[in-house]
Each structure stands twice: as structure tokens, then as C-alpha cells.
């Protein structure tokens, strides 16, 4: 439903959109890398019209839209998966008998321990896309009960039936709700999902309905991210015995494994239906292939930045190498700010005039931020290490001598590209596409040279050595700067990325 | 009601013949208590008064007036009883015992006003008896209406000895008072009746006031639709109308009844056997209460604890079959005990009636009534199980079917002639019990499905 009371221009109905974007928990409500990228695509391709299916978790947790809806977005439909089991109509009327075959297939495909075949997947998709499988069927029918209890009796090792039961409901009902929301979408000529998961599932359903092409772009790897979430999730009710077991082996716990399996199966379904399957860098592409994507359909389109704007920043640099090592990122555990601080200890011992700047908001994980502050104090770095909070990247990056990225998880960090354009070499942990970025992917790319250095994650000593090598050796620094500028300009321009997507869109739609 | 279950389990836990017997006696008195004791007391008063109160028509007028008082007060408050019982147990489940007392006073206030107005209109409009008679009927009616609301709490209270003593005291007072008030004829006897019931009402009320804490004097939370189930009102009315439908038909068919007092008519032929038959279900009621409130309720609690606490489905199903066995055993035991009672009464009925000075003419009707009231006991047991399982729709269905069938089949039996009298009542109950069994079977089969798939 298009909620017209929210901010942003009113979505217009009527004319058919070119591309239907399927988004989960991102644009236009949540700020972040993926949302920024989506905004970039929509604004960068003003001749393409878009419709959007936004899939959120809890309706209340999305307040105002953070992005202005551009005029080429013709329609926005929103669906919130937690509504699925909260507003389920209480059936006082006779409950439906449900479709025994559809519900059995649903169990077989998404929940059965054995990897399902494509025929079952197609049958489930057919039932979802045709609207044959209703919310009533899933939530109230006897057939659903039979399918659920049979699965429990044959496969479930978690003793608590009520946990199992509600887990099944929580998984199954949103799929039907998304199918219902998909049925409300005005037809578009092409589907583009920005993740697997629920958005990808909606893509599969709509592909079945519209018989059009379905493109998948993955920034991270959705299934992997869900696994990380699930490993930390405290909302999964677990039996005391099981909790004890899982403290020995974090991957155990039947309910957890059910969730992981569920997201894996959705991923599989999406990989089977999407073409092409796009990753940001080759590492992720390989991971997609490992997870079931057909290698022939996969391809890499890296993110790009506005080269003109960032190249201009090089002019604002002071002469020489600024005695500043900077980390740009939110102060949260995933950025591993502590490793940066520890590395600074070594750097400062060698070069006492060096400063370490931690540039990013500290309000997301206050406890972790406090720990970082006390680590700085206990290492006696108060004079050298400064917490600057949020700063404008284009003002701060030209003032850095070396930029450091200590993250334990990244996809393709744009900040590296921005640093290069602004003339700053980068030392990064070996995560995501960082090695590919800094050392070069293809042979041709490698010939441009190293635009900094890649070190192991959580290794302050190696990080410090790498930084020191660059700082102490102006020649080396200079080479890295040149390599960075060249690489960013050759491979990572926004225009290039937009052009690739424009081509992809027009090929998939016939003409544009 | 939870209270009685715990007490009975405690007594049974002593595991001796005497304690078991005591549990059954308690249960029998508590469940059958007020109304069976009322029947016995009233009959006793009648028998004592024969030969003392002249003309004898006065005794008959007293008995018939009393019967009408019971019938009308039970029908009037039947809905409220079921409705309020559920309200009370819901609030107890929510751990809000302090709201119960103010609401009891609230519902009693409403019942008093409504019953008073109703009685006033009817007595003013339909009766031309002396003022004193009408005043006594009105006060008796209002007292009984309140008493039926108060006795909801008896099985929930802990001091059983006190309750039994109160009952004994109240009914003894009634009988003794009638002995001394006999010279005043009909009015004297009605006053004795009032005295007995009013004593019971106020002593019980006093006990309840002591047992439940309250933060305010009076409350009307039960008028809040979110906290109650209105369908229960209809259920209660239907069930009580069902119980009395055949009697009213016999009272108001000129062929089977005679005029007694004012607009009140009675059927000598029909009334005596059925009231005697009602006394036969006391042992069955005791068994039923003990079984349902101990075995069944215990399994029921364990079953739903298992669901909430996250037990395995296999364990839940296991507990369900244990609960099913408890229900089956309960019904079987009612059948056994009631069967033996009925067989014994069949054998001794001729002598019994002779001893009571009742004509053999009543025998066939007495036999069929014995079977009928046994079915009524089974129906009560089934309805109780359905209330536990929260199957309000089924209870309403059975109650409505009962009243409709009883009316239809009783009219049919009158049309078919005297040898069919009593069959309307019995057959209608037999059908309801059969249907109830079928519904119970299905409800138990679907219990897990309903609990999980349809509850939220």
C-alpha cells in the first residue's frame, strides 16, 4: 500500500514502470551503503522509470523516509513481514482445508533437512504466485497442521513443540503475505532484487506472474549475513538443555538451524530464478556459486563513485604526507576500532608525532565506544588518538596521510575508492573485496600496482608495520597514491557502473 | 472451580476407605447440595404438614408455589450463573481476586432489582391472592435468585465443614420453623421457606466476604463486554429452560394438570415421579464431581502446562490421551454408579412407592424418569468437560437443542397418550447426550489442532 501520509512525493499510479525494484529493509527508510547505492541507480538513470516493493520487518521501526522519492519512481508498495503473524485473522468461521499438496511441498522445499529439487521449488512458487495458497491455508488449515506436525515428528530435535510450531508460522506466513503484496504490484517490464531473502523471493514470485527477466544484485551475501545475525540472536527461544549444548557449539540448536536452512533455501530459489546474478566483487561471486548459483549467470559489477567530485579533492591536499592515520567508520565492533588503536600504539612509538583519527559516530554501540576510549587511555595515547565523531568525508579524507580499515567484515567499501581519488593510500584488513581493490583483480588491473597494503584481520602489529612502511618511505607512498588514483578512475567510476546497469536493463527489456 | 479439586485431591491423597468415602460425600453434598436438600426439605415440610394444616389444599398450594419459585428463579438466573462463573474463573486465572467480591455485589444488586421488578409485575398482574402471600412469594423469589448466584462460590471455598454445617443449619431451621409456623397456614410455611433460604444466603455471603479481599464495595466490570462472554447468558437460560420445559408443558396442559393457586397449575401425575427420580442422581453427581475435578482437571492442567512450557508434541499427545482416559473413566463411573442405582430403584420402586403411600399408577413414569435424570447427569458431565475445554459454542448448541427437543418431544408424548408421558424428557436428553458424545470425540481428536492453529 502506498502510504501517502509519509514524507516524499506521492507515488503516481497508472503508467507502467520499466524496472520493479525489490528492496528489503533499505531505501527509502534506512540510511546506509545499499540504500545510497539504490539512490545512486535511481538518480543516475533518470530515463528509466521504477516501481518499488519495500519489504520491512516491523512496521513501527520505520519512521520517516530518509530519501526524497525521485520523480522516476512511479509506485511504492510496502509490506511488513511481522504483520503476517500478528494480524492474522482469527478464524471463527470454518477453517479452510488448505491444499495438502502445496503445504507439503512448502515444507519439503523450505524446511526439510534434505536439499530439495527444482520441481518442488517450482511447484511452491506456482502455488504462491497464483494466489492458490492463502494466509488462511498456512495459518489455519488442517493440511498445514499435518505438514507441520509431520515435519516435527520426523525431523525436529528441539524438544519444544511450541517453539518449533511458532518458528514454522513465523517463516511460512510472511512468504504468503509477500506473495499477496506482489499480486498488488502494478506490472513492470523487468525485476531487480537488491538481495536474496524476502526481496529475492518476491522477485521469484513476480517473475512467475509476469514472465519477465529477473536481475539479482547482491551487495553482501544475504544468507551469510542472516547466519551471523542468527548466531547472535537472543530472540530464538531455546530449551535450557539445548542452550547448554549450543554454548559448546554455536552452530547447534534445531531452531537456529531451521532458520539458516530457511534462508539458504530462499537463496537457492532466488539463484535458480535470477539471471544475471550480480556480485560486487569476485569473492562474493564465488560464494554465490558455492551457494548454488549457476556460474554462467554470475557476473561482477563493482560499485562506483562520482570521480569528478572526488578527484577534485586531490587539489585540496597539503604538500607531502600528512602525519595523520585515519579510520573512517562507525565506532562498532564490526569495524574493529580496537585493532586500530593498538596499531596506533606501535606507530606512535616509532613516530611520536603521528596522530590517529577515529572518524565516525559513536552513538550506535555506546558500550563499545566507551571501551575504545578507555583503551586509548590505558595505552597512553590520549595525545595522539582523537575521536572526531561524524565528519564530512570530503573534508576529512584529504587531510589523512594513510587511511586504515580494520573491519572484520566488508563488501566493497566505497570509502577506499574515495580515499584514492583524494590521494590517500589505504591499509586494509583482508575482508570482502579489499584485496581485489588494493592489489588489483585482473592481470591488467594488477599492473597498475598496489594502492596500499592488505593485512590480516585483527593484527595490530601487521597493520602498524604496513602503515609505517608507507609513512617512512615517501616513494612507496607516492607509488601507492598513483596506483590508487589510476585504479579508481579506470574501474570504479559511477558512470561506468551506471552504464553497465543501463545496458543490463535495456538488454533485459529488449530496448530502452 | 479450582478450589474443590485441590481439597478433594488432598482428601483422596490420604488413601483410605474412610477418606475416599468422605471425598464422595463432600462432593455429593456440594454438587447436589442446595437444590436436592431444598427438594427434600420442602417435601419434608409438606409431609409434616399433612394432617395439621387444613384444608390439605393449602399444603399443596405451598408445594406448588415453592416448585414455581425454584423453576422461575433458576431460569431467571441460569444465564447469569454460567456467565458469572466464567467471569470469576477468568479473573482468578488473571490473579485478580480482589475484583471478584465487588462484582458479586454488583451482579447481586442487578439481579435483585430485575428479579424484584419481574416478580412485582407478574404478581400484580396475574395474581389476586392476599397481599401477604404475594409479598412472601416476591421475597422468596428474590432471595432464591441471589442464593443461586452465591452458591457459585461454594465449590471454590475451602472450609467445607463450615459449608456443610451452614447447609444443615439452614435447612434444619427451615423445617423447624415450618413446624412452629404451621398454624399460620400457607403464609407460615412460605415464611419458614424464606427464613431457611435467607439464612443460607446471608451466612454464605458472610463467608465469601471474609474470604475475598476487595478494594471497593461494588463494581460492574462484568458489564464490560471484553471481560465476559455474552453467549454464556443464552447458554444458561437455554439449559435451565430445557430442564423445566416438560414440566411447564404438563402444568399448563388442561388434560394433565389442575388449578392450584392463582394462575399456578400443577400436574399431580407428572411432578411426583420426576422429583423423586431427581433424588436418585445424588450418588452419580458425587462420582462425577470427584472424577472431573480431580483426575480430569489434573490432566487438563498438565496438558496445557506442557503446551505452554514447550514440551514435545509426543508428550502433549500422551497427556491428551491420559486426559481422554480420565474423561472416559469419569463417564464410565457415572454410568456404573447410576446404573446400579437405577437397577436397585427399579427393583424396589413398587415397595418404595407403597411405603411412601404413592399409587402404583405412577410406576411406569417413575421408571422412565429414572433413566431420564441419569441422562441429565451425563449431559451435565459433558457440558462441564466442554466448559473446561472452552467449547462455548458446543455447550450452547447442546443446551439449545435440549430445550427445543424437550418442548417438541414432550408435546408429542402428550399427543401420543399417557403411556408415553416422560418419554419426551428422557428421549430429548438421550439425543443430547449422544450428540454431546460425538462432539466430545471430535473435540478431543482435534484438540492439538484447535489449540495451536486456531487459538491465536
Automatic annotation (TrEMBL), chain A:
Signal peptide: none annotated. Residues 17-296 form the DUF3492 domain. Pfam families: DUF3492, Glyco_trans_1_4. It comes from the Bacteria. InterPro entries: DUF3492, PelF-like. This is Pellicle/biofilm biosynthesis glycosyltransferase PelF. It comes from Halopseudomonas salina.
Automatic annotation (TrEMBL), chain B:
Pfam families: PelG (PF16933). InterPro entries: PelG. The keyword Transmembrane helix applies. Keywords: Membrane, Transmembrane, Transmembrane helix. The keyword Transmembrane helix applies. The chain crosses the membrane at residues 21-54, 66-88, 100-125, 131-154, 163-182, 188-209, 229-252, 272-292, 334-353, 365-387, 394-414, 420-438. This is Pellicle/biofilm biosynthesis Wzx-like polysaccharide transporter PelG. The lineage of its organism: Bacteria, Pseudomonadati, Pseudomonadota, Gammaproteobacteria, Pseudomonadales. The gene is pelG.
